[in-house]
């Protein structure tokens, strides 16, 4: 509640002496509200009391049901007064009290009277109040008046009715939809606000009718729109029409001229709206982007923070998809790093991190270092994430970026921030082999002084996996063993496990690890002692240099091979009895889709967040899934699993996507099926695959889903045989086959009899890229040189006329399915030539590198020179064949 | 949707708060978040200079007017630009009612009027009226001048 500014000196000026609401108290105000019942109403007094009630409500005070009812009934008495000011307050008060349905009836007649009053303003306000408190039945009674009001010649009345319509559309859509003729008329109104409100309502009424929206947009973009707000709406609707028309043809994109024209509008909000609409166009070309970027660049140096913010926010988004288009703004953006508003500064930095090139990284890092000290953690996290992706883009710069991360790791910060940094370092260690040793040491130093148990244990776990694989594992032992002395029991226990892992994996360290583990036997904590005892007794060799038994390793450190969710459910349903819990009874089938599938494409796995700390890549998850199915046991090692391919359109009855699993001489299609109909149960679900257009493949088995209840994904598999090691390609047509049973949605009971049914799915293709793993190298030149030119194959190809150089580059990358290195997948704007470096592993585990030089010949013709090096002559030729036949 | 319009005095006490579509249990959080935002950033800021912040997909535009700080919070179509339009209408209406950038006392004196103005400007989370002259007339139940 507001603190009154009490001052004792009476001679002071009248203002700011005491609050008119000094000592206000709900009970007293409710007492005062009795004046509403006076036979002789004092409008001034009543207005004051209402103000006090409003003050109470606006302070978050609430009235009990009885109090609210009492006040409401009293307020309705005020309709007797003819005082205009008081009447306005009464309207507001009724809305604030939002009376219940049985009370509304008291004011309905008064409001209906006002709604037909000769005084325009009574009409407008009565409409607003009625629509706020009304329900469906009352609405049908007053619908006639509302329709009239929409086309009322007084713009306030029309607007009141239109805005009411917008709100009522949520609760009573079928009634409001009947008003479209009147609303259509109001769109042509000369009053700017009426046009704005009418346009919004009309669009909402017709939003599911593409043709109607398209017509609306066509007519309005030709005519005049009076208010900037309405113009903004029109721009939004126009983008929607463009999006739905699905045209990506350059040059004659419909309505582009309209959007471009809006960039010269006098209202800033219209300019922004148009610029954003252009930047968000599907497959926007650099020619289309340029005018939008130019106006946004001007706003970067605006004196108004809101405009700077809006501009940099939009450019930040553009930078994610078209980094080169934004580079022109880099100088303006750099000056924003020192902007007083930290939101703007953070956006500027993260944009720069996306658009910068390799040479500017060091300079940028220097600027960021100064900036980091005075921003809040939430902004720092954004910066850390941007730096992580920058480092993955320019792996050669890992040294300075890793140093930066380790420096900020030492500074003050909360848990989320520290976790973001640690996650980033972990990801860099995983993806950039050269960064591994230094990264692990940074993490070691961090746990020496880490206040977060969660992070310490996660890092220890990660050290246990990665540390033994380094060139000198012994140097990490000191950091780990220090934890046993200095930390709480949780961290100590996890340090013991990490030590044991070093002992198990590095035989030469085993005797020394045993010495350390023995010391842990005297720990004060049970868990720490138990773990130490377990490891000492199972690792074997009694401290001498011997190899640890594989079974022991699997037992101690192997994964459970069970989906944790299944284990959890089984444990919950287990009832304590004589019979011990049997882990073999836990089902191994993954119920829902594997975790990695649900992530947005391109999103990196989140570092330590995902247990266990070893990278649970998509392949790992699939490998586990497939190995749990006995029929696939003799297929050998899984080479690659593709990203899921959708075989149904969005929002169909059955949603199916497919993952292609490639083995040496087999291919398995995993169909992830979801039944989206609540009152159906599907049984014996299979996919019938026609492989007549895939000659080298022959079906060997099909594994159905026995039961597919509503909204619980299930997987069916179809396996094929193909010639060993051959990258066979082909097209497969698919038909979902199942038995449908009706389910009573209220009882959940299923009918006994089912009907057989089929559902056509889209085709699935196995292409050359399916036989290539995306595996990057951190230094392409080194890798290229060390591979040697023994099996180098060079040839030139004409790609014919292409939309742009960038489009041609990305098409070739997709065709080969290789990993672009050193950011060479991005093609600078307007460039006429480009070199792209690719790396991958071909089926049979053969490393392949490709260097492709593209050039534009004539107006649009693209030509390329492809140089391939690999460890196998045949593979180098195979890559050329892919390109030649693609 | 305009999620909130909040007025606070110079020491961070709430004078007016109007939430739309914000669950009651989250309001306290918003209230303290906004007040802290103002305390951190509004010192030395000129009257009506707009500041902006965002948290995930929610935007905040705020400013100071006399002794009173004003915050509007929005999402979706009410991004920083939409909100700056809203706050511009609010500040001009408040100035119009008070005759100048208000002291806290003056603001409280005109409390009823200001509530009426807000009622005309924001209706259940949507911007309704945008011109101060029109609002001045509407809160007196007079038809707008242009009509």
TrEMBL record, chain A:
Record-stated family: Belongs to the COPG family.
Regions that span the bilayer: none
UniProt subunit comment: Oligomeric complex that consists of at least the alpha, beta, beta', gamma, delta, epsilon and zeta subunits.
Higher taxonomy: Eukaryota, Viridiplantae, Streptophyta, Embryophyta, Tracheophyta
Keyword tRNA processing: no
InterPro entries named in the record: ARM-like, ARM-type_fold, Clathrin/coatomer_adapt-like_N, Clathrin_app_Ig-like_sf, Coatomer/calthrin_app_sub_C, Coatomer_g_Cpla, Coatomer_gsu, Coatomer_gsu_app_Ig-like_dom
Annotated compartments: Cytoplasm; Golgi apparatus membrane; Cytoplasmic vesicle, COPI-coated vesicle membrane
Membrane topology: Peripheral membrane protein
Annotated segments matching region Disordered: 592-613
Recorded GO MF terms: structural molecule activity
Keywords: Cytoplasm, Cytoplasmic vesicle, ER-Golgi transport, Golgi apparatus, Membrane, Protein transport, Repeat, Transport
Stated role: The coatomer is a cytosolic protein complex that binds to dilysine motifs and reversibly associates with Golgi non-clathrin-coated vesicles, which further mediate biosynthetic protein transport from the ER, via the Golgi up to the trans Golgi network. Coatomer complex is required for budding from Golgi membranes, and is essential for the retrograde Golgi-to-ER transport of dilysine-tagged proteins.
Membrane is among the record's keywords: yes
Protein name: Coatomer subunit gamma
Organism whose genome encodes this protein: Lithocarpus litseifolius
Boundaries of every Clathrin/coatomer adaptor adaptin-like N-terminal domain copy: 27-539
PANTHER family: COATOMER SUBUNIT GAMMA, COATOMER SUBUNIT GAMMA-2
Any one of the GO CC terms: endoplasmic reticulum
SUPFAM superfamilies: ARM repeat, Clathrin adaptor appendage domain, Subdomain of clathrin and coatomer appendage domain
Domain Coatomer subunit gamma C-terminal: 769-883
Residues in Coatomer gamma subunit appendage Ig-like subdomain domain copies: 621-766
GO BP of this protein: endoplasmic reticulum to Golgi vesicle-mediated transport; intra-Golgi vesicle-mediated transport; intracellular protein transport; protein secretion
From TrEMBL, chain B:
Gene3D superfamilies hit by this protein: 3.30.450.60
Keywords of the record: Cytoplasm, Cytoplasmic vesicle, ER-Golgi transport, Golgi apparatus, Membrane, Protein transport, Transport
Predominant location category: cytoplasm
UniProt GO BP: intra-Golgi vesicle-mediated transport; intracellular protein transport; retrograde vesicle-mediated transport, Golgi to endoplasmic reticulum
Gene Ontology CC: COPI vesicle coat; Golgi membrane
Subcellular location: Cytoplasm; Golgi apparatus membrane; Cytoplasmic vesicle, COPI-coated vesicle membrane
InterPro entries tied to this protein: Coatomer_zeta, Longin-like_dom_sf
Protein topology in the membrane: Peripheral membrane protein
Family: Belongs to the adaptor complexes small subunit family.
Function: The zeta subunit may be involved in regulating the coat assembly and, hence, the rate of biosynthetic protein transport due to its association-dissociation properties with the coatomer complex.
Quaternary context: Oligomeric complex that consists of at least the alpha, beta, beta', gamma, delta, epsilon and zeta subunits.
Name of this protein: Coatomer subunit zeta
Organism: Lithocarpus litseifolius
């Amino acid at each position: 509640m507001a603190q009154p500014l009490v001052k004792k000196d009476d001679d002071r000026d009248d203002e700011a002496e005491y609050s008119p609401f000094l000592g206000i108290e709900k009970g007293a105000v409710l007492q005062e509200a009795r004046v509403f019942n006076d036979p002789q109403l004092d409008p001034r007094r009543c207005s004051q009391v209402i103000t006090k009630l409003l003050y109470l409500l606006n302070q978050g005070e609430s009235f009990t049901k009885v109090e609210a009812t009492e006040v409401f009934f009293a307020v309705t008495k005020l309709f007797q007064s003819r005082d205009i000011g008081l009447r306005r307050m009464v309207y507001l008060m009724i809305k604030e009290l939002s009376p219940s349905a049985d009370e509304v009836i008291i004011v309905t007649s008064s409001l209906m009277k006002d709604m037909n009053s000769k005084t325009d303003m009574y009409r407008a306000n009565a409409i607003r109040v009625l629509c706020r408190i009304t329900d469906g039945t009352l609405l049908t009674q007053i619908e006639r008046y509302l329709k009239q009001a929409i086309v009322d010649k007084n713009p306030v009345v029309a607007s009141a009715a239109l805005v009411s319509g917008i709100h009522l559309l949520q609760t009573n859509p079928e009634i409001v939809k009947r008003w479209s003729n009147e609303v259509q008329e109001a769109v042509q109104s000369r009053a700017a606000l009426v046009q704005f409100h009418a346009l919004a309502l009309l669009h909402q009424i017709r939003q599911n009718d593409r043709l109607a929206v398209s017509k609306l947009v066509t007519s309005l973009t030709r005519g005049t729109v009076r208010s900037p707000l309405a113009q903004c709406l029109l721009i939004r609707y126009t983008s929607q029409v463009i999006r739905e028309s699905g045209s990506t043809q350059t040059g004659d994109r419909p309505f582009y001229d309209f959007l471009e024209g809006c960039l010269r509008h006098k209202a800033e909000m219209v300019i922004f709206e148009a610029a954003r609409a252009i930047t968000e166009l599907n497959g926007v070309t650099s020619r289309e982007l340029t005018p939008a970027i130019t106006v946004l660049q001007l706003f970067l140096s605006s004196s108004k923070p809101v405009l700077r913010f809006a501009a940099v926010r939009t450019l930040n988004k553009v930078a994610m998809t078209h980094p080169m288009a934004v580079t022109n703004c880099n100088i303006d953006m750099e000056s924003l790093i020192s902007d007083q508003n930290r939101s703007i500064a953070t956006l500027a930095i993260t944009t720069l991190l996306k658009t910068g090139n390799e040479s500017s990284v060091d300079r940028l890092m220097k600027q960021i270092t100064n900036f980091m000290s005075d921003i809040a953690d939430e902004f720092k996290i954004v910066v850390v994430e941007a730096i992580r992706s920058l480092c993955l883009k320019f792996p050669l710069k890992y040294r300075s970026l890793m140093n930066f991360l380790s420096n900020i790791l030492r500074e003050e910060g909360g848990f989320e921030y520290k976790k973001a940094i640690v996650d980033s370092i972990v990801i860099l260690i995983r993806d950039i082999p050269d960064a591994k040793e230094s990264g692990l040491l940074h993490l070691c130093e961090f746990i020496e002084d880490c206040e977060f148990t969660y992070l310490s244990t996660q890092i220890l776990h990660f050290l246990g996996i990665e540390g033994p694989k380094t060139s000198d594992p012994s140097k990490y032992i000191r950091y780990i063993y220090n934890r046993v002395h200095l930390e709480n029991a949780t961290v100590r226990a996890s340090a013991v496990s990490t030590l044991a892992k070093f002992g198990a994996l590095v035989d030469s360290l085993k005797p020394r690890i045993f010495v350390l583990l023995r010391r842990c036997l005297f720990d004060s904590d049970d868990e720490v002692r138990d773990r130490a005892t377990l490891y000492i007794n199972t690792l074997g060799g009694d401290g001498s240099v011997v190899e640890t038994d594989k079974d022991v390793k699997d037992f101690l450190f192997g994964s459970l091979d069970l989906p944790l969710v299944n284990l959890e459910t089984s444990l919950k349903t287990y009832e304590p009895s004589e019979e011990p819990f049997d882990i073999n009874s836990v089902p191994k089938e993954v119920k829902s889709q594997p975790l990695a599938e649900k992530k947005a494409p391109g999103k990196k796995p989140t570092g330590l967040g995902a247990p266990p700390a070893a990278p649970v890549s998509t392949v790992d998850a699939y490998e586990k899934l497939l190995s749990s199915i006995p029929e696939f046991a003799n297929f050998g090692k899984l080479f690659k699993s593709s990203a899921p391919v959708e075989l149904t359109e969005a929002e169909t009855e059955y949603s199916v996507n497919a993952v292609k699993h490639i083995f040496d001489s087999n291919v398995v299609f995993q169909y992830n099926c979801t039944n989206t109909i609540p009152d159906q149960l599907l049984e014996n679900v299979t996919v019938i695959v026609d492989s007549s257009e895939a000659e080298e493949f022959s079906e060997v088995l099909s594994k159905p889903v026995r039961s597919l209840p509503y909204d619980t994904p299930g997987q069916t598999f179809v396996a094929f045989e193909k010639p060993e090691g051959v990258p066979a390609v082909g097209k497969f047509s698919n038909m979902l086959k199942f038995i449908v049973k009706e389910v009573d949605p209220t009882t959940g009971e299923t009918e006994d009899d089912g009907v057989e049914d089929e559902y056509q799915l889209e085709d699935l293709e196995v292409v050359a890229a399916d036989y290539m793993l995306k595996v990057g190298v951190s230094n392409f030149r080194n890798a290229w040189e060390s591979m040697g030119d023994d099996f180098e194959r060079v040839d030139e190809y004409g790609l014919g006329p292409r939309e742009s150089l960038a489009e041609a580059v990305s098409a070739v990358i997709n065709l080969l399915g290789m990993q672009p290195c050193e950011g060479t997948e991005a093609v600078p704007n307007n460039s006429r030539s480009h070199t792209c470096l690719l790396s991958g592993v071909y089926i049979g585990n053969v490393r392949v590198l490709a260097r492709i030089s593209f050039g534009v010949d004539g107006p649009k013709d693209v030509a390329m020179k492809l140089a391939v090096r690999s460890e196998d002559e045949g593979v180098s030729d195979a890559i050329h064949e892919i390109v030649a036949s693609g | 949707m305009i999620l909130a319009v909040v007025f606070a005095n110079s020491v961070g006490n709430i004078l007016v708060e109007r939430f739309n579509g914000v669950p009651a249990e989250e309001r306290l959080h918003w209230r303290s978040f906004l007040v802290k935002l103002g305390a951190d950033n509004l010192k030395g800021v000129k009257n009506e200079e707009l500041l902006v912040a965002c948290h995930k997909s929610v935007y905040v535009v705020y400013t100071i007017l006399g002794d009173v700080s004003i915050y509007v919070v929005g999402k979706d179509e009410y991004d920083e630009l939409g909100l700056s339009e809203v706050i511009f209408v609010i500040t001009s209406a408040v100035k119009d009612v008070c005759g100048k950038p208000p002291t806290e006392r003056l603001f409280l004196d005109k409390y009823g009027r200001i509530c009426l103005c807000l009622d005309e400007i924001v209706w259940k989370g949507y911007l309704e009226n945008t011109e101060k002259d029109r609002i001045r007339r509407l809160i007196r139940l007079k038809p707008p001048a242009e009509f």
